[in-house]
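Quarterly update from the structural biology core.
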Amino acid sequence: MTFDELLNQFDPRLAAAFREAIESIKSGIVLARVVERLERGDVNGALEALQIDREAFSALELAIGDAFNAGGINLTQNLPSLMDPQGMRVIWRFGVRDLESERLLREISSTAVTRITEDQREGLRYAFEQGLARGQNPTRTALDVAGRVNRVTGRREGGLIGLTKPQIEFIYGENGARVKLLSGDPALMRDYLKLKTRDKRFDRAVTKAIREGKPVPVEMVDKIIRRLADKNLLYRSEVIALEETRTALMTSRSEAMRQQIASGKIAAQDVTKKWKHSGSEHPRLQHIIMSGQTVAFDQPFVAPDGTLIMYPHAPGVSARHKIGCKCRVEYDVDYIAAGLRKYRARIGA
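Predicted structure, tokenized:
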């Protein structure tokens, strides 16, 4: 299996696991509890009533673990044959129970879920506070956040759970899409028609309001915003999948190579790695410049801004070098030098 095939396998799986977690949170909401706390002005209590906790994202953590293991195994399966000093073929294996690899996997999954839950709480706190500041009915504010139940499917649709604070501001904030559609200002309503994540089926209703110089009717705005929120949630799941799939795969591939070196099957001096820039919609100039940069296995790549990066999506690397990045690393083993060294060791030369 190629690296691209691994991405094609795990990208959609992680995106689906994230959406599954959000659906689980939504389905568990007791709206009356959220409303009751908002009526008291208790934003913290309303947040707690949503029950956004780590356990809700267990399927995502499992998917990250499976991607991690698959990446390490895949790298070892694609290493060429090599003979040891006794003339036996070297068996390349990735130890999924290796202590350092297990530590890194725990760090990756924990960091991902912690970041997601913190983003959630920050964004939803903002949404609750916005609703209260507008003097909006607590029930309406709770529904705006939790989504409304579709009587046919029994599932909540729309809502702001799963979105980041910038996404929530973009939809629900003081200058967000909802406010613009209700403004009656043709210029502001036209801004909505520029959104890539809008549902174009509603364009006719918005265009009609612009032509008449009137606000889009409230019921129509509610439908538009529900679809806008759903499409932004889909986008959010794809961004998370891109980041976490690549972090898991890149880290486990590096770990797989480290394990071969630690076991004495190859020497670190025989391994180099090369940065490969992969095309993206908005490529980073720094990463284009780095393409082709080759360093020793245990040395970092150096970005033009001085950032040291062991490999693309390495844990701890700043977001400016990670979010949306599709770069990868290629490992090259000097098998001739490794084989010659083993041969000399065998004959005592």
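The chain has a mean pLDDT of 92.
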